[in-house]
Amino acid sequence: MVVTTIGVDTIEITNEKVNTIVQQNIATYDKAGENHYDIISAFIKSIRGSDPNAAVYWLARMIEGGEDPSFIARRLLILASEDIGNANPTALVIANNCFQAVNVIGFPESRIILSQAVTYLACSAKSNAAYMAINQAQETVKQSGDLPVPLHLRNAPTKLMKDIGYGADYKYAHSYENNFSEQEYLPQGISGMKFYEPANNARENELRQFLKNRWKDKYNY
């Protein structure tokens, strides 16, 4: 315990009082401060972790702290693709509708829309397969450089381009059974490279089976 005299006033400082003040400061929400990023991090991780109760609590913390509803809705848009993706494509639709709605309505009513979107996303099946696919594809581009487009996939708007083989031997998928014709779509040198690995959930297992039926052993689906 520390006792300090300021003018005619005596201030008693104890560990208990310091802890109380520290906890009160932590509970505040500063949109420009470190706690802002801690709370949005907890919010996103709660949705990713499929905990609607924690997610809506952190949502309430942001609302009570005066956060811009558009900021919250933008983060939901990102999460819908990054953490849910093709496990539930409707998640992106919900998040996008939420973003549009809160920008029309604003607080306080938009809190209800945000709550609906947050609890839906938290309860959704999760997959980061689309996120991982673009990460790997970009890394491949950085490592392999600007590989040439195969001739049969090139656009051929002029006779000269057609004469040198642009677009030759391209197989129009809709002209074949099941709207599919096996042909090479990747540049030479990375043929058969798989970027999209469907996650183990009901929706993406259907996508995996679709790809396996079409491509057989090429991509090892």
3D structure, described in words:
- The chain has 221 residues and is mainly alpha-helical.
- The protein has two domains: 2-122, Up-down Bundle (Zinc Finger, Delta Prime, domain 3); 129-215, Orthogonal Bundle (post-AAA+ oligomerization domain-like), CATH 1.10.3710.
- Helices cover 55% and strands 5% of the residues.
- It has helices at residues 15-27, 34-48, 52-64, 69-84, 90-105, 110-122, 129-144, 159-163, 202-215; strands at residues 2-6, 9-13.
Nearest-integer average pLDDT:
90
Order of helices and strands: EEHHHHHHHHH
Low-pLDDT runs: none
- The residue fraction in helices comes out at 40-55%
Alpha-beta content class? mainly alpha
In DSSP terms (H or I, runs of 4 or more residues), the helix count works out at 9
CATH architecture level-2 label of the largest domain: Up-down Bundle
Q: Can you tell me the number of structural domains?
A: 2
The count of β-strands is 2
How far apart lie the N and C ends?
67 Å
Strand content: under 5%
Spatial arrangement of strands, main beta sheet: 1-2
CATH topology type of the largest domain: Zinc Finger, Delta Prime, domain 3
